[in-house]
């Protein structure tokens, strides 16, 4: 288990390794294909795709933030997030997520949404989106949609989350 992970923004040289992380971490290629599609989408924001680097110098984990909207207000969507199976439960995913969130805050971004495991994402400060009047136009478990405010400017705006087109939501 790693006590600390080195993190950095993804570079073009990391694309194949990031794809391999997602292919290894999930049962289908959907997440890997989604990352590839998001790279070509206007929702992509340079500097918000982060990798955690293993001791051998290769990416072990990946976290991606892309543009979405809550109602008409700009926000970020966290995901996909993946860790290569041999590095799961070592902090590689958490390191990549924290680095991506710090980078987003440094860019002046205010709000992030995630559709994911309600046991995992609260460790980063995410809370149930419905408590803030944030929802989706498709049915998902209420506890799976969460929001995070990156600054002290107040809660997220209420409204429906509009993801980038590659998400298909």
Keywords:
single chain, globular, alpha+beta, 169 residues
Provide a descriptive summary of the structure in words.
- The model has no long low-confidence stretch (mean pLDDT 95).
- Helix 3 (92-106) links the parallel strand 4 (73-83) and strand 5.
- 38% of the residues are buried.
- The chain is of the alpha+beta class and 169 residues long.
- It has helices at 15-25, 30-39, 92-106, and strands at 6-9, 49-53, 59-70, 73-83, 111-115, 127-128, 134-135, 145-149, 159-162.
- The protein is globular, with a radius of gyration of 15 Å.
- Strands 1, 2, 3, 4, 5, 6, 7, 8 and 9 form a 9-stranded mixed beta sheet that branches.
- It is built from 3 helices and 9 strands.
Structural class: alpha+beta
- Which H/E pattern describes the elements? EHHEEEHEEEEE
Instruction: Give the CA-CA distance, first to last residue.
Output: 36 Å
Give unreliable regions as ranges. none
Helix content: 10-25%
Task: Give the mean pLDDT.
Answer: 95
Oligomer: single chain
In DSSP terms (H or I, runs of 4 or more residues), the helix count works out at 3
Number of E strands: 9
Beta-strand proportion: 25-35%
